[in-house]
Design goal:
heterodimer, A: mainly alpha, 3 helices, 0% strand, B: 3 helices
């Protein structure tokens, strides 16, 4: 029963990522696109942990999740700093 | 324990879904950032806590708790950096009433 619950949660997270992907693709401004990108990144963290739990390989998926969290955070900060001085609004 | 983890996972999914709805429906960049910056952090934290409870007190469970701390540090910082960068780039907030500057 727990397995089915986890699979349905992972499918729901994937659907929510599609909703965020709409803002990433059709955002009116550049900043909306960056927000959608960060949102997809944080949802990927949860999705990786759920996939690790479903397939029974937590030992490798936890390490992948930690590395992905740090890379996503550094990427978001670098993009925000890069576009900060430019008149893109 | 499994029931507690299920409750945490369901609550976290509710908050994540609410944040995604907010980023779709709100009218302006700053309001969208306001909707997603908090609900997303809370939802991700609750869902990761649920998987940590499912895992139990092992080394992998400790690493999952470490993920919560990293997200709690990183997510508000990234949100604040985005908002400040947009403000410095000259993005004007959505007016409270139509017609007012």
């Amino acid at each position: 029963m727990m397995h089915g619950f986890l699979v349905s949660l992972a499918l729901g997270i994937a659907l929510t990522m599609l909703l965020s992907l709409y803002r990433l693709l059709h955002g009116p401004t550049l900043w909306d696109r960056l927000t959608g990108l960060g949102l997809v990144g944080t949802k990927t963290i949860v999705l990786l942990l759920l996939i690790g739990r479903i397939t029974g390989r937590e030992d490798i998926f936890v390490d992948i999740t930690l590395a992905y969290t740090l890379i996503s955070f550094i990427g978001a900060l670098a993009l925000a700093k890069y576009f900060e001085g430019k008149e893109t609004a | 324990m499994t029931v507690l983890a299920g409750i945490f996972l369901g609550l976290g999914f509710f908050f994540i879904f609410t944040g995604a709805l907010g980023i779709l429906r709100f009218p302006d960049f700053y309001t969208r950032l306001h909707a997603t910056g908090k609900s997303d952090m809370l939802g991700v934290g609750l869902m990761v806590l649920g998987t940590a409870i499912l895992e139990g007190p092992t080394l992998n469970g400790l690493k999952i708790v470490l993920v919560i701390f990293v997200v709690a540090l990183a997510s508000p910082t990234a949100t604040h950096a985005l908002g400040r960068a947009a403000h410095r780039a000259g993005l004007v907030p959505w007016p409270a009433r139509k017609g007012e500057p």
